[in-house]
Write a structure and sequence with these properties.
120 residues; mainly beta; four-stranded mixed β-sheet; 9 strands; 11% helix; disordered N terminus
C-alpha cells in the first residue's frame, strides 16, 4: 500500500500540470498586442548608391508603442529588382544607373520602405 500512494500522488501531479482547463477548440494563443509588430523602420530611408555598388539596409521591427522587437523575421522586396536587387538580408545592389526604386521590408503584416536612387 505504501508503494501505491506515491504513485497515485505523482500521477495526479502530472495530470494537474497538463493545462486541463484550457479550451482545445480555441487553438493556439496569439501574442499580446504589445508584442506584435506594428511598424517596420528601414535605415537609411533614402540612399544614393553608385551603379554596381552594394549596401545593406537595416530593418527595425517595433511594437505599437515604438519599442523595438528584435529577432522578428523580415522579408525584403524590390519594386524593380532588375534596377535594384535586394537579398534576404537587406543587401541591395544597384544594377541600372540614374533610377529610383522603393525597397520594402515586411514583418507580421507591417511594412516599411526606403527609396534607393542609383548613381552613375
Amino acid at each position: 500500500m505504501s508503494i501505491r500512494l506515491p504513485f497515485r500522488v505523482a500521477f495526479v501531479l502530472v495530470l494537474g500540470g497538463c493545462g486541463g482547463d484550457a479550451d482545445p477548440a480555441a487553438g493556439p494563443s496569439l501574442p499580446s498586442a504589445s508584442s506584435q509588430v506594428a511598424s517596420v523602420v528601414i535605415a537609411p530611408q533614402n540612399v544614393l548608391v553608385a551603379n554596381g555598388d552594394t549596401l545593406t539596409l537595416v530593418a527595425s521591427t517595433r511594437d505599437i508603442s515604438g519599442a523595438p522587437l528584435p529577432g522578428r523575421r523580415v522579408v525584403w522586396t524590390s519594386e524593380a529588382p532588375e534596377i535594384v536587387s535586394v537579398s534576404i538580408t537587406g543587401r541591395i545592389t544597384a544594377l541600372v544607373p540614374r533610377r529610383s526604386v522603393r525597397i520594402t521590408a515586411s514583418s507580421e503584416g507591417a511594412s516599411g520602405s526606403a527609396t534607393v536612387t542609383t548613381g552613375n
